[in-house]
Each structure stands twice: as C-alpha cells, then as structure tokens.
Amino acid sequence: METKSHSYSPHEAESAAALFMALLEAAGEGTHHVVVAVAVHGDSVVVPMFFRNDGETTYLEADSALQATELIALAATVGSGGAVVRTHFPDETSNVRGWRLAGLSFEPLSAIEILDAYCTNPAGAPLPPEEGVRYMAAPPLRC
User: Fold this and answer.
1) Which of 49, 90, 99, 141 has the smallest count of CB within 10 Å of its CB?
2) Cβ-count burial 77-110 (b if 16+ within 10 Å, e if not)
3) Sign of CA dihedral 6, 18, 105, 14
C-alpha cells in the first residue's frame, strides 16, 4: 500500500485515528470483520481486518489497524471510500453495516444502501441476499 508517500497533517492523522476507533466501538461486543476501501487516483485499495470487542477491550492486529487508519486519512484528503463491518454470531448468522467516507467523517448507510452494495455484482447485476445475513442501517459514529 502506497500511503506512505502522502503526508498528513496532525489533524488529519488524529481525525482518521478517531474515525477508525469510533468504527470499532460502533461494532459493539463480539467478533467482527471490517473492510476499509478507498479509491484514489483511479485505483482501489482495500484493508480487511478481523477484530473482537470484549467489554472495554478490543483485540486486533496492530499492523492492519494502522493500515486502515492510513487509508482513511488518504481517502479523506485525496480520494473517496467507505467501511463495512460484518458482525459474526455463534449461530452462523451475521449483521452487516456500512459507512461512506465524507471528508474526515463517516456517513452511515441505510439498510437499503448496504443491501444494494452487497447484492450487486461488479457489472451492476443484482445478486441474491446471503442466507443468514441481516443488512442493517449503520449508526452514526461518535468521535
């Protein structure tokens, strides 16, 4: 990932870190998979990461978290992007929520918007919803 060639102001770096932490907090308790995706200068970059929230503690892979934070800062300053969080449950069901990056903030997607995003192939053709998946409106993030 070539985000190192772009320098960020302290405000941009702090805002991106706060956004990423708010995203993890909004996921709530449990095991989650987050994907941060951005489009910059016609290229797409994606950082997937599993994490678990257990009470006051979040367990995650530090390098992936840093990459996701850098990607948020990059998209906020020179591109566009978003994030999707999928929460996994023991009964093999899951909830999916998403946010669109708008400058240095995330705008929640509605249940219909996340369903459309998940159930459309790259060519724009509809796909059936996944069995056991609830496509849910994302909550506003608190930063």
Assistant:
1) 90
2) bebebbbbbbbeeeeeebbbbbbbbeebbbebbe
3) negative
Q: Which two tokens stand for residue 18?
A: 């706060």
| Strand intervals (E) in 17-56 | 30-40, 43-54
Q: What amino acid occupies position 42?
A: G
pLDDT band (50, 70, 90) for residue 5? low
| pLDDT band, very low/low/confident/very high, at 6 (cuts 50, 70, 90) | low
Q: Delimit the domains of the chain by residue range.
A: 10-135
DSSP element (H, E) containing 84: strand 80-88
